[in-house]
Design brief:
About 45% of the residues lie in helices and about 20% in strands. By secondary structure, it is an alpha/beta fold. Helix 14 (about 375-395) packs parallel to helix 15.
Length: about 575
Amino acid sequence: MGYALQKILLIEDDPKDALLFSSLLGIDEPKNKYFVTHVSSAEKAIEKDIEKEYDVVFLDMNLPGVSGFDAIEKIQSRTANIPIVVLTGNNDEAFATSAIKKGCQDYLVKGCNDGDTIRRSIRYAIDRKDFENKIIDLARYDTLTNVVKRDVIYDRMEKAISLSKRNGIKLAVFFLDLDNFKHINDTYGHLAGDFILKEIASRLKICVRSHDTIARFGGDEFVILLEGLKSEIDDCNIIAERIIKSINKPIRYEGTVISISGSLGISIYPECADNCSDLVMNADAALQFAKQEGKNTYHFYTESLNQKIVRSNNLEITLRKAIENAEIQPHYHPIMDVKRNRIEGVEALARWNCKKFGIISPVEFIPLAEKTGLINELGELILRQVCRDYHQMKTLVKQPFKISVNISAKQFEKKDFASKFINILMENNISPKNIAFEITESLFMDNSEKITSALKTFKEAGISLHLDDFGTGYSSLSYLSRLPVDTLKIDKSFVSDINKNTNSQVISKAIMGIANSLNLAVISEGVENKKQLEYLKDIGCSKIQGYYFAKPMALDHFKEWIMAG
């Protein structure tokens, strides 16, 4: 702040003292640098827009009808950024110290000052207040993104809740997390990550209203407080969509265009919670649900969502115990060779009959295992059980056959994953040639060295690789020619209406053509009736899996099925 024209608000009840103050500053001189506004009470002072109109306040501490410290609080209630110099009739050090502790920047004793002293006090008060504000900013604002820190938004949330209780006005809390931000840091470096965080913070400021609060919560997480909502759902929808759209715009960093997206969770006061911590926690829960729905979207917290979260938390505890106690067992789904009229192999599918919750679908517990990191322990459990079961099966199945085991992309994140699985086969006297691993196309979106190395290790050991659900995801001829896949599986979504849907017929024929040109085998999933079977045989697909032959079975039922066949 410069000193070209200092605007001063003087709060003084004695007109003579006010006139003396102005004359000492020389406001009538040609080169005067000061403009003084005089009011006679604190009440008249707070009617003015002190923050915008003045550079410094001089306050008489002996105003009638109000104590000096009450007057300070009244002025500070109107602004926290303008320096205050108190005027007193007594040279009392204890009083001066108390005034400074209250937030004033200086004090002057009436009758003991000349113009130079007052001017020096003005400069000192302004400089000291600027320094204090900078210190406060460092404590309150995130230095990277220049939005407030976590404790600041909690404080504002407390005040907003109190105001909402009095006025019946709604407020909302947004919890934002950038999708796959770790991958961006790993790929482009942390300087690029910092650049993106600053850019996202700038975009958020444009998306919200001037009185809303944005805080960096940590890492790539932001929390936004929306106050004074008129129609909370409509207002939140508008702002959430604006945020998602803004984040989706590519960011250019040092000549590289980086794509980014974000997910949002929203909780509303008082429907979702009546306190700060629960509002934030519930917004975070809604955020996690938005990520589960595919990311790059937003979700409101609801009671039904809460029930899902409670169930998920209970399931996680139960899942840990189920893995420890080997309650999750493989069921076996036959794969038939209809050309030779015999069993080709079986697919091992994890099944969980929970004592507490009953039968839990793998659609529910597999993603939970992946999310919690339990997928590694679960995968080892299933593979060890498959190895033990194989020795019982081979006494009944007269010709060679394979057991295929599903592998999650999450399992490849462990460095020793491939070697550990091969060791399990060796420990159980199972030849790798009798095992196939089923993987999905999503695995190839992360073309990491770890994945490539693990697949190469499996292939060299003699383990077959089946590409499951082919045609439903990111199908690319480039990775089929590059990676050691042996077999493509036509997804059941194409088979279910293959007799009447031309597109499904075209896709199925195309998969057969691709497989033949690359010398790959094909297995068709989801065959439930004879018409589907006949069509697949007509296009050259002889390896079939589906309810037409059998449903997945526990080992005992599978052995009975083999003996009956």
